[in-house]
Amino acid sequence: MKTRSLYLSALCAMALTAGFTSCSDDDDEWDWTKEGSKVEMAESRAFVLNEGAYQKNNAGLMYFDWKTDTGYNSDLFMAQNGVQMGDVGQDILVDDKDNLYVILSGSKVIYKMNSVGVVQKSIHVDDNLGDPRYGVIEDGALYVTCYGGFVAKYDASTLSLLGTVEVGKNPEYIIEEDDKIYCTCSGWGADKRVACIDMKSFKEATYFEVMDNPDRIIETADHIFVQGYGADYSYPWGELNVKTGEFKQIGNASAWTAHNGMLYLCNSVTDWSTYATTNYFTSYNAKTGSLSETSFLKGAPEELGSTSVYGMSMNEETGHLYIMTTDFVNNGAIYHFDQNMQYVGKIASTGVNPRKVVFVD
Questions:
Q1: Which of 53, 124, 134, 287 is 20 to 30 A away from residue 161, measured at CA?
Q2: How many percent of the chain have pLDDT more than 70?
Q3: What pTM was computed for the model?
Q4: pLDDT tens digits, one per residue of 195-239
């Protein structure tokens, strides 16, 4: 959509040069019906993947206008497609053409949707690959970790399988950096490695050792960070130097996101004797290597300090932060903070376990 705006500006400039006195973008106004939407939608669209509960077939997609925090308060996927999404919404991605991709681990399904959530293509992941988990899109390909021990490469347009590389049992999160794919190999607690695959050859993996049971991996400002459960479920995280192979633990966190060289982290600690949860919010400057254990949030509601944080997402265009919470039974909530980490407001989720937000404009 930004490309269209730039194109229109160029046409306006050409028209003025040719002697015309006005140029209008009326013909390029957003029309939510053009892509087959049955729901009125804003041009500034955010999509929340609600994971749902295991084996309940209640994963869902929610939409809201990220400029106003208002939107369609129901299951958007059902409204647009007339069917339930499926079991366990694991990941949601958006490509540079504003197509949406949703990975369902329980149902073993990958959906490709247009920018209003209407399904264009879906595939069932081969049982031999195992449950699909997380994905990354790069150069027209969708790379997906699969619990059978593989990274699968799909054509992002057609979802045709292009190849697989064996990495290790139960791989989880995945990123791309400098023409390489990196994913964590959890082994459900039996592994402690990050796998690295050259995207050009896409034949075999090399490995880096990190912590026991690694889970998340993220990149910001050319630094790669890995988080895991650890041997004692203390959620250690640290930086992986892929040039030297060294991993350095920095802190503890159960959820995080990144923007412009900053890591924003939360460690949800639960006292299982009372089931009371306390959230500790910290931040890390990847450019300077400095950790701040003072909460970066300003004006946060008191309730956010004691509710399990299930996901954190960043709007890369605005720098706004969205923190998703859950009690694992009822519909969750999404807390919105602006680029200064000042509290903006709370959005009620329409499903259980809101996991991730992606943004389209």
A1: 53
A2: 92
A3: 0.91
A4: 999 999 999 999 999 999 999 999 999 999 999 999 999 999 999
Q: Characterize the bridge pairing of strands 354-360 and 193-198.
A: unpaired
Closest CA to 186 of 167, 151, 212: 212
Per DSSP, the three-state class of 117 is: coil
Q: What Cα–Cα distance (Å) separates residue 203 from each residue in 151, 162, 258? A: 11, 12, 30
Q: Output DSSP code: residue 26.
A: G
Distance separating alpha carbons of residues 89 and 317, to the nearest angstrom: 25
Residues 326 and 312: beta-carbon distance below 8 Å: no
Give the number of C-alpha atoms closer than 13 A to the C-alpha of residue 209, restricted to the C-beta side: 1
pLDDT over 80 at 7, yes or no: no
Nearest to 134 by CA among 93, 190, 186, 181: 93
Contacts of 2 (CB under 8 A, 6+ apart): 361
- Report DSSP letters for 310-330, one per residue: EEEEEETTTTEEEEEEE-SSS
CB 164 within 8 A of CB 126: no
For residue 112, give the H/E element and its range: strand 109-113
The reported pLDDT for the residue numbered 272 is: 86
CA dihedral 200, 153, 138, 160 (to 10 degrees): 120
pLDDT single digits (tens) 79-131? 999 999 999 999 999 999 999 999 999 999 999 999 999 999 999 999 999 99
Q: Measured between alpha carbons, how far is 270 from 208 in angstroms, rounded to an integer?
A: 31
Q: Percentage helix, strand, coil, to 5, in the chain?
A: 10, 50, 40
> What is the rounded distance in angstroms from the CA atom of residue 280 to the CA atom of residue 285?
17
φ, ψ dihedrals at 105, nearest 5°: -75, -45
Residue 232 burial (C-beta neighbours within 10 Å; 0-12, 13-18, 19+): exposed
Question: How many whole angstroms separate alpha carbon 320 and alpha carbon 171?
Answer: 30
Exposure string for 296-306, b = 16+ CB within 10 A, e = fewer: bbeebeeebee
CA-to-CA distance for 338 and 318, rounded, in angstroms? 8
φ/ψ region of 21 (left if φ > 0, alpha if ψ in -120 to 50, else beta) reads alpha
